[in-house]
Amino acid sequence: MKKLSARRRHPLAAVVVLLLALAATGGLYTAFAPADKAQAETVAQSLAIDEGKKLYAVGCASCHGTGGEGSTDGPALAGVGAAAVDFQVGTGRMPAQQPGAQVPKKKVIYSQAQIDQLAAFVASLGAGPGVPAKEQYNPEGADIAEGGELFRTNCAQCHNFTGKGGALTNGKSAPTLEDVDPKHIYEAMQTGPQNMPSFPDTTLTEKNKKDIIAYLDVVNSDDSESPGGLELGGLGPVSEGLFGWIFGLGGLIAVAVWVAARTAKAKKS
């Protein structure tokens, strides 16, 4: 007892007790404390992948294969990335109603939460473009003039110079870009859906894409005015040429007939 009392009175006894208490507290916290933010995100991502796999098995596996390997009815999905899923499913193009040259935009059947889960599962099959953040596709502060130049150089051949869309070969078409969510426009440029080529950041930078989105936002705005007057739908030389032939040439013919009739009447008099 004297030896134990002596140890208790030792100058380092309080320090030893404090260290033991801290070690015990740290161990208990590690054992019972909730997971930190990184662990929580990992768990949430894992759950999203599991839920996405279930949705995929019901709505996508029949065409794309149970593991995303693809089939005669649908391409492989490894490496397409979450952005491709968010675009295709978020615009209603997928699941496809029926096979064909062009898969049209239609009513979306999944909620955004379900789309995110599907995207998480497909992204787990292989690295690919991720869903862009709002600051990446928000057109505020972008260079509209530069966007117009980029759009006319890279996109107008198919989509028309104001994004009204147009016909392609073999029953395919470039869809109109009016009233399309800026996020989906960004994702389309990033992933190249269907007949469209992809424009990764090495081809069109993030700023370039934002500039193009800003240009489309202006030319398709209800408040925008055509500097050339009546835009005839903004469909380009076909509609303008048709207008010229029907009304312009038609008007000239009508005037010529009127002049001839007046001349003939004058001669009779």
TrEMBL record:
InterPro entries: bc1_cytC-su, Cyt_c-like_dom, Cyt_c-like_dom_sf, Cytochrome_c_Oxidase_Subunit, TAT_signal. GO terms for molecular function: heme binding; iron ion binding; quinol-cytochrome-c reductase activity. It is an enzyme of class 7 (translocase). Residues 47-126, 142-220 form the Cytochrome c domain. It catalyses: a quinol + 2 Fe(III)-[cytochrome c](out) = a quinone + 2 Fe(II)-[cytochrome c](out) + 2 H(+)(out). The chain crosses the membrane at residues 242-261. Binds 2 heme c groups covalently per subunit. GO terms for cellular component: plasma membrane. Keywords: Cell membrane, Electron transport, Heme, Iron, Membrane, Metal-binding, Repeat, Respiratory chain, Translocase, Transmembrane, Transmembrane helix, Transport. Heme c 2 binds at C155, C158, H159. It is found in: Cell membrane. Its EC number is 7.1.1.8. It comes from the Bacteria. Signal peptide: none annotated. It is a multi-pass membrane protein. Heme c 1 binds at C60, C63, H64. Pfam families: Cytochrom_C, Cytochrome_CBB3. The cytochrome bc1 complex is composed of a cytochrome b (QcrB), the Rieske iron-sulfur protein (QcrA) and a diheme cytochrome c (QcrC) subunit. This is Cytochrome bc1 complex cytochrome c subunit. It comes from Streptomyces aurantiacus. The lineage of its organism: Bacteria, Bacillati, Actinomycetota, Actinomycetes, Kitasatosporales.
